[in-house]
Amino acid sequence: MFENLKPQPADKILALMQMYRDDPRQEKVDLGVGVYKNAEGVTPVMRAVKAAEHRLWEQQTTKAYTGLAGDPAYADAMIELILGNAVEQDKIAAVATPGGTGAVRQAFELVRMANPAARVFVSDPTWPNHVSILKYLGIETVPYRYFDAETRAVDFDGMIEDLKGAKAGDIVLLHGCCHNPTGANLNQSQWQAVVELLNQGGLIPMIDIAYQGFGDGLEEDAAGVRMVASSVPECLIAASCSKNFGIYRERTGLLMAISQQGDAQALNQKTLAFLNRQNYSFPPDHGARVVTTILTDDALRADWKAELEDVRLAMLGLRQQLADELQRLTGSDRFGFIAQHRGMFSLLGTTPELVEQMRVDHGIYMVGDSRLNIAGLNAQSVPILAKAIVDAGV
Length: 394
Ligand code: PMP
Known about the structure:
The chain is of the alpha/beta class.
């Protein structure tokens, strides 16, 4: 049997991490994998997470199974965090999942189950795992234009034109905020126009929100999601707590299926629970319980928000420093987009050859599509990167 297996493509980001580790240079800079790092290069456990874990350790009396949907209190807390009161609770089915990836996977499985003919429209580019999971599930993927190579902002006209090619029942995958890999995001009027297009075409949005709080703030980053969820008949939302709670390895995510049809919620909830049962039975609980503990306790929630805000502002500061340094070196504003982008990433929009050159000449490690992890920088490495960008002639 095993002789029939063929090697699967290696994950490029993970391969890059290994190359970075093997590089003996002192001044090497890791801008690859999407993990937040502070100025010391550490991915810390957030204070509120430590406190919540301590509380759980003291108070938790059992590790017996939860329900197939996970702890309902977790779904309630996350729904409130993401949607506020934009959608009535009885319209929302929700299950805990192993990370945002688990939510994305379960969402696509639900799509395939409900409408095998549905195609999924994805931004070009998008998080590569979206495309990889869709391919694995045998779901047809259609790219839509998203990134303007000239301005490094959203190519909104191109996006709308391409989405007009979708048929009723097709899925449109949107990033809730902090687009990965580009860092370029829709503004409120663009979200509004997307909502109109979805409703005119009978298209179903699926929103992946993995960086709430990393862009313009917790509420601001959820504004697009809330607008869509409250304005369309049906939608899917896949959320991750990996980044904004810094609990990457705890595998903590949530999938929501929202339907405005009065009686759909019960069946949607049962179907999501069924899908969990088929794939892994009960979803992981520890991270979910930590998140619930934080979100439902005023003091812990306030402390978490304060630390998250520090993280967000640190990344904005690094963006500004890098844009300023490039302005100084080039005498032009053409890298101003770095300060305009939001979230952990910016797509430089250059060739794999120049990315490789920056790695060889300056020890700068970024993904081949020229995605920078802004959080991989600090005050010392900003000038090194700026010089590498200018030397390479980006
Ligand atoms: N969606 C997007 C757009 C992401 O960038 C990520 C993390 N890289 C995820 C989902 C999933 O994150 P996780 O499974 O680690 O929660």
